[in-house]
Amino acid sequence: MIGDWVDAESLQPILLGATVVLVVGAALVWRGVRRLLLRLVLVALIGALAASLWLQRADLQDCVDTCSCRLFGQEVDVPADVNPNCG
Prior knowledge:
Layout: H1 8-32, H2 36-66, E1 69-71, E2 74-76
Helix pairs in contact: 1-2
C-alpha cells in the first residue's frame, strides 16, 4: 500500500507535477552535461520515466469507475466521495 493519505484523486496532480519536474530536469541535463552520448542517455531515461508517469496518470482516471486502482503495482484507495460504490 502506498499510504493512507494517497488516493486516486490526489495522485493525478502529484503525477502531473512529477512529470513537469522530470521535463525541467531533462532540460537542465541537456544544458549541463557536455558529453553528447551521456546527455542523450540521461534525457532518454528521464523521458521514459516521465512517459510512464503520464500513462499511469491516465489509468488513474479510469480506475475510479472500477474501484480498483494500482500504481506501479501498489494498491491505491478510491475515496467514497469520488465513487460512493467504493466504500
